[in-house]
């Protein structure tokens, strides 16, 4: 969001935070093993065998109309749907049937990881539309990953680095705000997130070998869904360059994602759901940057250079997924065109019931973009939209709960995926461990 976590809206959020965090890169590597080991050790040793789910699974189709009224229903929903052990099933049977999701990404799918790491207290109105309080998500409510979990009838994923209140029985969210696909640019780049998954998997295996309980049985990792949404920060960080130089760097970003998928496959992953990047030229944070004239805007008021770079990145990422599909036999690798989905919200905003598609909800300055990079979304003032207003952008960079609901509905439908496949068709119990 346009707050202490993004320093004015660089990419998937967390730009300013990540500049400060990059100074801690060396210290991070020194303490990662100790911190992660302590968290995972405590989780594996003391987590009960059956843990109640902690997040609501409301319909994605109703989220836009009911976002502001959803929070009071959460506790009642937990009573009805949260229990892992279902009627008529043993704990072992229920655990075997549990959906497993492992997510990698930036602030577009961060469910509180960066906030937990830095110890940052985010103030309202963050989280107002669904949770009723800030959760560390850079939105007024849920991110697309939350809707994916709800569609799969499982609770929201806990951040890997969150020591309190986490439940890893249905997977782990490794996404961190500000993360890049490129190693070294941020402390929690994609390669580090993949290393964290491997560490988690090995600790689960060690616990089972010692006869102890673990959140996930190692033999179940092959049937898990591996979701990925990263690259936005890489792209926006180079947009100051001439366009030909921007294009020259995109293959490197994509290659890092390709390598991550290959490493995950070697470690048992078989089902991949890979998001392309969105319409970066339609983000209010980018549109509010000073420009000489409007010659670089398209017919819907978005920056052509940013959007062309995003489309080229997605083209290369889709081709990489095609190649991996041929190399990694008996694996499912689905690419989702997030640019087409998110641009549609702007181009056809009236169809979606969206008002003022280029305006920031929690921003400052008023029309045309209501975005001021010097002021954060950490309180309500005269320029903050009302809870029942339907806007795309929450803070100039990240989407509102309502917009994320629309994005998720289109993404999981299969209409924008290559090959065409619904998310629910991909997540089916695997028959064997050698697939």
> In this structure, how is the largest beta sheet organized?
6 strands, mixed
Number of strands: 6
Average of the residue pLDDT scores:
82
- Which descriptor suits the 3D outline? globular
Give the strand content. 5-15%
Order of neighbouring strands in the sheet with most strands: 2-1-3-4-5-6
Radius of gyration: 20 Å
Number of helices: 15
Task: Give a verbal description of the structure.
- The chain has 435 residues and is mainly α.
- The protein is globular, with a radius of gyration of 20 Å.
- Helix 13 (338-347) crosses helix 14 (401-412).
- Strands 2-1-3-4-5-6 form a 6-stranded mixed beta sheet, with helices on one face.
- It contains 15 helices and 6 strands.
Task: Note the main attributes of this structure.
single chain, 435 residues, mainly alpha, six-stranded mixed sheet
Describe the structure concisely.
This protein has about 425 residues and is mainly alpha-helical. The protein has helices at about 15-20, 25-45, 65, 75-80, 90-95, 115-120, 145-150, 190-210, 230-235, 245-265, 285, 305-325, 340-345, 400-410, 425, and strands at about 100-105, 170-175, 225-230, 270-275, 330-335, 415-420.
Map the helices and strands.
Blueprint: H1 15-22, H2 25-46, H3 63-66, H4 74-81, H5 91-97, E1 101-105, H6 113-118, H7 144-151, E2 171-173, H8 190-209, E3 225-229, H9 232-236, H10 243-266, E4 271-275, H11 284-287, H12 304-327, E5 332-336, H13 338-347, H14 401-412, E6 417-418, H15 423-426
């Amino acid at each position: 969001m346009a707050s202490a976590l993004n320093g004015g809206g660089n990419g998937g959020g967390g730009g300013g935070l990540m500049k400060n965090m990059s100074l801690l890169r060396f210290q991070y590597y020194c303490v990662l093993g100790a911190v992660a080991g302590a968290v995972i050790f405590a989780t594996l040793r003391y987590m009960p065998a059956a843990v109640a789910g902690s997040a609501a699974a409301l319909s994605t189709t109703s989220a836009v109309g009911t976002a502001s009224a959803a929070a009071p229903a959460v506790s009642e929903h937990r009573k009805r749907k949260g229990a892992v052990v279902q009627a008529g099933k043993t704990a072992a049977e229920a655990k075997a049937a549990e959906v497993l999701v492992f997510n990698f990404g930036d602030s577009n799918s961060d469910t509180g990881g960066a906030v937990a790491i830095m110890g940052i207290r985010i103030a309202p109105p963050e989280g107002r539309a669904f949770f009723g309080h800030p959760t560390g998500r850079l939105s007024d409510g849920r991110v697309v990953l939350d809707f994916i979990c709800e569609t799969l009838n499982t609770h929201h994923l806990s951040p890997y680095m969150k020591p309190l209140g986490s439940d890893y029985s249905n997977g782990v969210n490794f996404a961190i705000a500000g993360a890049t696909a490129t190693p070294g640019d941020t402390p929690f780049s994609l390669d580090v997130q993949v290393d964290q998954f491997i560490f988690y998997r090995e600790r689960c295996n060690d616990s089972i070998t010692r006869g102890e309980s673990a959140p996930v049985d190692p033999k179940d990792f092959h049937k898990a869904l591996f979701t990925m949404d990263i690259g936005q920060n890489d792209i926006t960080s180079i947009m100051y360059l001439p366009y030909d130089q921007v294009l020259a760097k995109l293959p490197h970003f994509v290659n890092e994602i390709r390598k991550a998928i290959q490493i995950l496959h070697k470690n048992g992953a078989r089902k991949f759901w890979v998001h392309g990047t969105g319409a970066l030229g339609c983000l209010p944070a980018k549109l509010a940057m000073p420009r000489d004239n409007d010659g670089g805007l398209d017919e819907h008021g978005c920056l052509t250079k940013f959007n062309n770079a995003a489309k080229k990145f997605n083209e290369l990422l889709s081709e990489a997924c095609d190649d991996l599909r041929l190399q990694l036999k008996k694996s499912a690798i689905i690419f989702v065109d997030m640019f087409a989905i998110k641009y549609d919200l702007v181009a056809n905003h009236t169809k979606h019931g969206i008002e003022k598609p280029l305006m920031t909800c929690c921003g400052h300055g008023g029309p045309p973009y209501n975005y001021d990079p010097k002021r954060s979304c950490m309180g309500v003032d005269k320029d903050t939209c009302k809870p029942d207003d339907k806007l795309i952008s929450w803070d100039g960079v990240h989407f509102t709960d309502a917009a994320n609901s629309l994005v998720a509905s289109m993404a999981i439908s299969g209409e924008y995926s290559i090959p065409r496949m619904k998310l629910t068709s991909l997540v089916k119990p695997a028959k064997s461990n050698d697939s």
